[in-house]
């Protein structure tokens, strides 16, 4: 059955997901702050700043009026950058339909509070966190909007909410959706993988090749799982689409903003210039700062994150960061993992 769905905001990912929803027969209203962008979407059927050359279906319309976007919407998809999520949610709360399903597809933390996006939405919308759905997984907007086969996951503590979101997005031609009850794990994986993608771009920019990148991805996954476990995630989540799937997709593709930013940093381009050239939000930069603090709060070892933090915010050169990682004290991979797991199980049994 066709439903009206509001999508907040009209960036590349919001527009791509709008395409999925419209292809599934739903009526999509994209919200943007800029009237000129709304006019382009409505008149030209395009959003060229974010997805150049893509023709949008008639089932998508746009507005800069939040009340118009929300009017009659049975579901709302938030795709605002993490830095803007609280402000946008506060604005949306005034006109949000009481029974509307709330979904978000933003991969990051709030910088100051270090809160996950579902927590931010819960606070601003006055909804229980259990009712909010997270959409994540390996999914480049440039490929989704071209209807290339894509598989993602929706997570919510309330399984009925996850299944409702699954029904909205699932189709049998190019977009497959799994459910997962581990909201904490899915959000953690989606956020932290952007840090590792920055590192992958940096490694490629330095010309280090596949050996280095394979090691970075593998050890990066270990960092994601360590932090996730410390804050209550299910470790199995990190072996799935939201974990290793998204990590591989983001670290190995030039579609990735974080990979491109890391590659530019390796060429000696200063961070402010990198962000200006990108012209779009690079979530991994903010997330590196958040993860650096979270790791210390929870006593979690995250050496890749530590070195990227030093590169981004303390002026460490990329080649010295690599040297610091390679020169760490020697250890045994399996014994390291076993020690961590044994310690955690013992703590949980106390």
From TrEMBL:
Amino-acid positions noted as binding substrate in the UniProt annotation, renumbered to this chain: 107, 257-258
Family matches, as InterPro entries: 6-PGluconate_DH-like_C_sf, 6PGD_dom2, G3P_DH_NAD-dep, G3P_DH_NAD-dep_C, G3P_DH_NAD-dep_N, NAD(P)-bd_dom_sf
Domain spans labelled Glycerol-3-phosphate dehydrogenase NAD-dependent N-terminal: 4-161
Enzyme Commission code: 1.1.1.94
Pathway as given in its UniProt record: Membrane lipid metabolism; glycerophospholipid metabolism
Catalysed conversion reaction: sn-glycerol 3-phosphate + NAD(+) = dihydroxyacetone phosphate + NADH + H(+); sn-glycerol 3-phosphate + NADP(+) = dihydroxyacetone phosphate + NADPH + H(+)
Binding site for NAD(+): 141, 257
UniProt KW keywords: Cytoplasm, Lipid biosynthesis, Lipid metabolism, NAD, NADP, Nucleotide-binding, Oxidoreductase, Phospholipid biosynthesis, Phospholipid metabolism
Binding site for NADPH: 12-13, 33-34, 107, 141, 257, 281, 283
Chain ranges of the Glycerol-3-phosphate dehydrogenase NAD-dependent C-terminal domain: 182-322
Subcellular location: Cytoplasm
Protein's GO biological process: carbohydrate metabolic process; glycerol-3-phosphate biosynthetic process; glycerol-3-phosphate catabolic process; glycerophospholipid metabolic process; phospholipid biosynthetic process
Active site (record annotation): 193
Enzyme superclass (EC): oxidoreductase
Residues the entry annotates as binding sn-glycerol 3-phosphate: 107, 137, 139, 193, 246, 256-258
GO cellular component: cytosol
Molecular functions (GO terms): glycerol-3-phosphate dehydrogenase (NAD+) activity; glycerol-3-phosphate dehydrogenase (NADP+) activity; NAD binding
Organism superkingdom: Bacteria
Xref: PANTHER family: GLYCEROL-3-PHOSPHATE DEHYDROGENASE, GLYCEROL-3-PHOSPHATE DEHYDROGENASE [NAD(+)] 2, CHLOROPLASTIC
NCBIfam families tied to this protein: PRK00094.1-2, PRK00094.1-3, PRK00094.1-4
UniProt family annotation: Belongs to the NAD-dependent glycerol-3-phosphate dehydrogenase family.
Protein role: Catalyzes the reduction of the glycolytic intermediate dihydroxyacetone phosphate (DHAP) to sn-glycerol 3-phosphate (G3P), the key precursor for phospholipid synthesis.
Protein name listed in UniProt: Glycerol-3-phosphate dehydrogenase [NAD(P)+]
